[in-house]
Amino acid sequence: MATDEDYTPEDELEETIAERLLGLTEMFPESIRNGAGKTIDVANRSLKKAYGWSRTGVWIFFSTAIIAVAPALFEVERFQMEEMQKMQQRQMLLGPNAAISR
């Protein structure tokens, strides 16, 4: 007669998680299994399409923003450079205090 002390883990059958899940699916009717499989397929395709659209949308948004904003940034930089040159010219012509007093 076997007791708990005689029990070893080697006596247990090796079963992977995939095998266990496959065995659990057999307790559901075929129609439910098919419906769940179709639902998962539709969700997978939908997520792939949404991911593709979001990538395209992000690309369009950022490339448009760069094209639209870059000229404005260049103009601001040019304006600042012109102001700095005017201040340097005024300082050279009228002295160090003239550039500050405007």
Automatic annotation (TrEMBL):
Statement: the UniProt record of this protein carries the keyword Secreted: no
- Transmembrane residue ranges: 56-76
Which Pfam families does the record associate with it?
A: Tom22
What keywords would UniProt list here?
Membrane, Mitochondrion, Mitochondrion outer membrane, Protein transport, Receptor, Translocation, Transmembrane, Transmembrane helix, Transport
Q: Where in the cell is it found?
A: Mitochondrion outer membrane
Q: Belongs to which family?
A: Belongs to the Tom22 family.
Q: What is the membrane topology noted in the UniProt record heading this document?
A: Single-pass membrane protein
Q: What GO CC annotations are associated with the protein? A: mitochondrial outer membrane
Protein name stated in the entry = Mitochondrial import receptor subunit TOM22 homolog
State the Gene Ontology BP annotations. intracellular protein transport
Query: Which PANTHER family has this protein been placed in?
Result: MITOCHONDRIAL IMPORT RECEPTOR SUBUNIT TOM22 (PTHR12504), MITOCHONDRIAL IMPORT RECEPTOR SUBUNIT TOM22 HOMOLOG (PTHR12504:SF0)
